[in-house]
Write a structure and sequence with these properties.
The structure holds two protein chains of two kinds. Chain A is of the alpha+beta class. Chain A contains five helices and five strands. Chain A has a five-stranded antiparallel beta sheet with strand order 1-2-3-5-4, with helices on one face. Classes of the chains: A alpha+beta, B alpha/beta. The interface between A and B is medium-sized, with 25 and 22 residues. The complex binds adenosine-5'-diphosphate and magnesium ion.
């Protein structure tokens, strides 16, 4: 099915200055479409976490927003390095973040669990040396 | 709140009557993103742009910077665009929390991994 709205953002590795801009724009677009309240906040939180992960952990990637009737979909897709142990990565508190990321208030190891908690559907696929794709769905009431 | 914290109002002097119901003190933005909702005041010692961006994602209304730290003008500007109230206090984060607690503010309920383990 064709989405009603779609937007795509490139997120560069280590670009701490712009980190968060894609999510701020996603939030703005959704608000304009009429998404509000609890769902909007859940999308915003998950989007911010996944965007920060692209900056902190990936070699670069894309964040895509698709809006369908009754559904908001967020897809993060990067070009590596991939996650060797997904079960470990999903644990609260597990983090391999750099000092730089930590000094900015990230690297608490809460990002992936936060995404899972906030999204209605959460799927993560990762291959070392290839990349990580995270797909999240949020149901509109 | 301004009085008990002996705070400087950096942004939002016209919005000081915005109610907050709970408080959270953290320098870990992921923890904030996990547990906080828009009725919460965030007390933090971090003054980087991500504090304000995190607040934007959560629709927070009020930020308190502790230990006399003041963020740069561009950070304050984006806080202003969002309609945030931003305070700065000379108190440490611990003491700021103390006086706010005494004033009746309470923390946000936080689920932890322990809760699940306790159930097992
Ligand atoms: N896009 C990604 N590419 C590679 N590794 C990732 C990616 N996202 C997350 N990770 C790994 O999973 C761990 C946990 O992620 P997360 O829960 O967001 O915590 P944090 O970002 O605070 O480290 C990260 O420390 C990192 O090792
Ligand atoms: Mg993260």
């Amino acid at each position: 099915m064709e989405p009603l709205y779609t937007g795509s953002y490139h997120v560069a590795k280590d670009d701490y200055t712009s980190a968060g801009h894609a999510s701020a724009d996603i939030k703005r677009q959704l608000k304009q479409i009429g998404v509000s309240g609890d769902v909007l906040r859940r999308v915003a939180v998950a989007s911010y976490e996944v965007e920060l992960n692209l900056v902190i952990h990936s070699l670069g990637g894309d964040l895509t927003l698709n809006v369908y009737p009754g559904l908001v979909e967020l897809i993060s897709s990067d070009i590596g390095p991939g996650i060797p142990d997904l079960k470990m990565a999903m644990k609260e508190g597990y983090s391999t973040a750099s000092e730089m990321a930590r000094s900015l208030g990230f690297g608490a190891g809460m990002g992936l669990p936060n995404m899972k908690r906030n999204a209605d559907d959460f799927d993560i696929k990762s291959t070392v040396g290839v990349g990580t794709t995270i797909t999240m769905g949020f149901h509109l009431a | 709140m301004v009085t008990v914290l002996n705070a400087k109002v950096l942004i939002g002097a016209d919005k000081l009557d915005t109610p907050v119901y709970t408080a959270c003190c953290s320098d870990l933005m992921s923890d904030v993103l996990a547990f906080v909702d828009e009725k919460t005041v965030l007390i933090t010692g971090l003054t980087n742009p991500h504090v304000v961006r995190t607040s934007e994602m959560l629709d927070l209304k009020c930020l308190v910077f502790a230990r006399g730290k003041i963020p740069t003008d561009d950070i304050l500007e984006s806080a202003d665009e969002q309609g945030l109230v931003v305070l700065a206090t000379k108190l440490t984060a611990f003491s700021a929390c103390g006086v706010l607690y005494q004033m009746g503010l309470r923390g946000v309920p936080v689920p932890t991994q322990w809760d699940q383990e306790d159930k097992k």
